Amino acid sequence: MTWRWPSRSCSLEGTLGRIGPAHMGSEAFDLSVGAPGLVIELTFTAPVQLVPAMGRDKVKDPREVDSVLVVPSRPGMLLDHAESRSLPVARD
Fold it and tell me: Cys staple from 71: which of 35, 55, 66, 90, with CB 3.0 to 4.6 Å?
């Protein structure tokens, strides 16, 4: 199962509290599907909704999360780009 934001026009501007390497034992919602690589955690200042992508005809209830884990293919570039957009990047 994959997850998506409720709409393509969904903006996280103003709701992103931190983006950076995940800390051990994080309880964030895991979207990494066990992918190898550096796990990045996005923490939101307010809960956001994710909707399971089950196909065009199937509708699932959204899930509210306050943080998610992802594994980008180029984590350094992701963090550099986030900094260039004045997003709250933590490199700890």
Answer: 35
